[in-house]
Amino acid sequence: MGVEVVVEGLTKSFGKQTIWRDVTLTLPPGEVSVMLGPSGTGKSVFLKSLVGLLKPEQGKIVINGVDLVRCSEHKLYEIRKLFGVLFQDGALFGSMNLFDNVAFPLREHTRKTEAEVRRIVLEKMEMVGLVGAEKKLPGEISGGMRKRAGLARALVLDPEIILCDEPDSGLDPVRTAYLSQLLIDLNSQIDATILIVTHNITVARTVPDNLGMLFRRELVMFGPREVLLTSDEPVVEQFLNGRRIGPIGMSEEKDQATMAAELAHREAGHSDGSPDEDVRGVVPQLEPTPGLPPRGAVRRRKDRVMTILHTLPPEAQQSIIASLTPEEQRHYRVMAGAGDRTGPIAVDPTTPSPWPRQGGVL
């Protein structure tokens, strides 16, 4: 199972320019998380900080009890072995075929025999649907195939944490859908902790267990998907609906006068070119391909959400409850001591989960 990543008070600057400050969040082990934000808000910088490629000025990044911000180079090297990173362009070596690209980390960082390398590489290439393409060069294949090859390379050292920097960039909607499904299927099979940086609203709504939002050099929100998808936080709502109306502007945040003028324009019945209706609500999450094991992350996340349900606005509570299956609603009502048919759902966080354990992990 993937490991927990604890970030506390993280601040990163380049010279006098603060990229973000006091970022605090926890990536739950074995769950898929997405970090959103307008262009230029430092999402990729955050990813590079997590893996130790950039050094923040303040704060902590704690993995397995080790603070990556202050640890020795030796410790950092050891912790980095837990990571697999998918860069925006795949970052493949153009002179190597796909097999050698995927094999590179094994040959560089392990003493495995060529027979072992071949077995592992072919296994990972099969996982990402690239069987038969081993001898192709990166320049001979599509952008989607390069992304999948980059993901296969990120997987060869069996990482417990996978970081994906805009995996959908440069891909059409169909290839993005395939890649999204692939990430969910991978989580189902290896239960790794996954963090995805993206601008894609569809990916943000349907893929992750947790969502985060960077804006104005701060982490606006981070939490279970149900909480952010039902949030009335203006910047979160604007981004997830793809609207012009809201705090996010073309180049920087808008002032209050501009926002008030836009709102008055819209209330007067004028179109702003945005979707006609908000799509706030808990849309269905992608499920693993039939035949793969269920994702334990879903149960863990829903248990967590139900312990905080009573703290959320009534409209959000109703939307979250409506997203549960009838069986889930009955289970959580029993946990809340309300019987299996009616009554409010307000689960005591100390109450054991109703879900059966699988492999010793909830």
Describe the structure.
There is one protein chain. Helix content is 38%, strand content 17%. By secondary structure, the chain is α/β, with parallel strands linked by helices. The chain has two domains: 5-224, Rossmann fold (3-Layer(aba) Sandwich); 233-279, no CATH class. The strands form two sheets. It has a six-stranded mixed beta sheet with strand order 6-7-8-3-9-10. The protein has a four-stranded antiparallel beta sheet with strand order 2-1-4-5, with helices on one face. A hairpin with a 2-residue loop joins strand 9 and strand 10. Residues 351-362 have low confidence and may be disordered.
Key structural traits:
single chain; 362 residues; alpha/beta; Rossmann fold; 2 domains; 6-stranded mixed sheet; 4-stranded antiparallel sheet; 13 helices; 38% helix; globular; disordered C terminus
